[in-house]
C-alpha cells in the first residue's frame, strides 16, 4: 500500500506541476485568439436556450473575426474575472460592454469606441424612491469592476448610501427586486433591456450620467495585430450597415423578436416547463459538476491520505510538511485559492492554465487538506499499544502501519470520507467564478435569460439534493463493505 501511495503522490505532483506547462506550450503554438466576454449582460451578451451565446458584443466580434479572417475562442466568464485574465495573459482580449476610462487605459489598449452608453439608477417597481437623496442610509447593489459601480462610488458620500457588490448582473438586479438593496446602478441600454424583458425594476430619472464609450480591449502592448484587425473590421461593418443591423436587432425591434421571454414563454413559466425547455443546459451543468466532483474526490483522497500518512511518520520533517500543507490549504478560502491558481499563477509564471485543470487543482489542494487532517486523526485514534505490540514482534514501523494501524484507522475515518465527498460536490459551485459552467453557473445563465429566479433555483436546488442523496447512498454502501 505504501508503494501505491508513493506512486500516487508522484503522479499527483507531476500532474500538478507540469500539466499547466503542457497546456501552455500547446497554446503557444496556436494562432487562435482567446477572447473573453461576460456571462450575463444582456443585450450585449447572454445565453440562448440552446446554450449558444448571443448579443450585440457577441455578434460584433464574430462578424469582425469572419471578415478579418482570424480564428477565436469566445470564453464567457464574470466581467471582473475576465478583465483580470486579460492582464494575466490567460485571455488575449475582452469584449464585454467595457467602458473606456483613464484608469483602464493605463493597463489596456482599447479599440475604436463601438457603443456610446451612460449610467442610470433603478429601484424596485414597488419602491416609492424617486430621487437619489432618498437613498441615504440605504444599500445600493453594484457590479464589481464596472464603470457604473465607479460612478456610484463617486457620489456615495454626497448621497450617503451603503454599497453591496456582486459579480454578475442578474444577482445584482434580483437583490433589488427582493428588497435587500434599495437601488442599483447600471448602463442605460442594459437596464432598459432587462426591464423590457420582465425584470421588476424601474428607472426613476431620465438623466443619464457618466456618458462614455464601450471598447474592445487587450493588455497594454500586447496583441496589437488583433486590435488592428478589430478596428479595421469595425470600420467596415459600420460603413456597410451591418453594425446598425446588429444593434437594431437587440434594441430597435419588439421584444418578441429577440428576448427569449415572449408572451408564450410567460405563460410557460412553471417549474416543469422551465425544466423541459432548458433541459440541455441543465444536463450539461450536471455533467460538468459530476466530472469535477469525481476527479476532485479521487485526487483529493489520494493527496489527503498521503498527507495523513506523512502526519504520523517517524521522520519529523514529514510530520512538519504535513502540518504545514494542511494548515495553509485549510486556511485559504476555496474562492481565493481558485483565483490564485487560475489568475495569479499565470500572471507570475507566464503560463496558461485551463479553467477545468485549475478547478481540479483547487479542489485537490483544498479538499485534500481537510482529508489529510481527519486521516491523520484516524490513524492517531488507533490505540498506541497496537503499534507497540507490532514493533515488539519484529515488524518495522511501516509494516506495523500497513498491517495493523491503517486497517483500523480507515474504518474509523470512513464517515469523515463520506462527509468530505458531499462537501466536495457542493464546493464545485464556487468554481463558477473562474468560468466553469457547472450546475450553479448554468442556473445563473438561465435566470438571466428567463428572469424566473425562484423556479430556476428551486430546480437547481433539487438537482443538487438528488446528486448528494445518490452520493450518500453510494458512500454508505462502500462504508458497509469496509466494515464487513
From TrEMBL:
Gene3D superfamilies to which the protein is assigned, alphabetical: MetI-like (1.10.3720.10), Periplasmic binding protein-like II (3.40.190.10)
Segments traversing the membrane: 292-313, 325-345, 454-474
Pfam hit, one: BPD_transp_1
Any one GO cellular component localisation term in the record: ATP-binding cassette (ABC) transporter complex
Annotated compartments: Cell membrane
Keyword list, A-Z: Cell membrane, Membrane, Signal, Transmembrane, Transmembrane helix, Transport
Domain ABC transmembrane type-1: 286-475
GO molecular function ontology, one term from the record: ligand-gated monoatomic ion channel activity
Signal peptide span: 1-25
GO biological process terms, semicolon-separated: amino acid transport
Entry membrane topology: Multi-pass membrane protein
Family: Belongs to the binding-protein-dependent transport system permease family.
Protein name: Glutamine ABC transporterperiplasmic glutamine-binding protein
